[in-house]
Specification:
6 helices, single chain, Rossmann fold, alpha/beta, 9 strands, about 200 residues, 7-stranded mixed beta sheet
């Protein structure tokens, strides 16, 4: 099932961490694994997407991702990809390079019995370039903020989705129309949560 080309009405949600949430665990917030705990390893630069930001993102996408095919690049804890699988995605590919995080992802997938989720170890940009062009409905991008990953990752992600497909991007700065247009991407939604800019992008051509 392809995602719809239009979004539901924008909802106002204040992006913030859930009160009382441990800095070393987060929870899946919707779907069949709702409230399942995801452990957060103590890794430099690891920034799991906060609950409220994920809630807003899936409000934007329409909550039910039944039949969607997704890639979670720079997966980290796998929070975004596992949230998508919990909400019905038929295929989720988690891409992660760090061996400790890959091990934790594999353990989490096994614990949830997440048969639609595949974990691949390796460089996220190179891995995306090897995946079939146009075969996915949604790509999550949350690269390390201190590296030159953003443009190569967006180029690789744009190749994976068809016209009308979606890319979710977290970045330390806002990406505007001038930067996105050469990549054939259009900004549909944006919010700022602390130092993080969250973008929902759509491929236009």
């Amino acid at each position: 099932m392809r995602p719809k080309s239009s979004l539901p009405p924008k909802k106002t949600v204040t992006p913030a961490r859930t009160r009382g949430q441990s800095s070393h665990e987060i929870r899946i917030i919707g779907g069949q694994w709702r409230r399942s705990v995801l452990k957060v390893l103590d890794k430099p630069g690891l920034r799991p997407t906060p609950d409220r930001v994920r809630e807003t993102l899936f409000n934007w996408l329409g909550q039910d991702l039944t039949g969607w095919r997704c890639v979670d690049a720079f997966a980290g804890t796998g929070a975004l990809g596992l949230e998508a699988a919990s909400r019905g995605a038929s295929q989720v590919v988690l891409l992660e390079q760090d061996p400790d995080l890959v091990k934790a992802l594999l353990q989490q997938v096994e614990r949830l019995k997440a048969t639609t989720v595949q974990v691949q170890r390796g460089d996220a940009v190179a891995a995306m370039q090897r995946l079939t062009a146009g075969a996915f409905d949604l790509v999550f991008l949350d690269p390390p903020f201190d590296g030159p990953w953003f443009e190569p990752a967006l180029q690789a992600a744009a190749r994976l989705v068809p016209v009308g497909g979606w890319i979710y991007l977290e970045a330390p700065v806002a990406w505007g129309a001038d930067a996105l247009a050469p990549l054939h991407l259009q900004l549909e939604r944006h919010l700022k949560a602390g130092a993080v800019h969250a973008h929902l992008l759509q491929r236009t051509a």
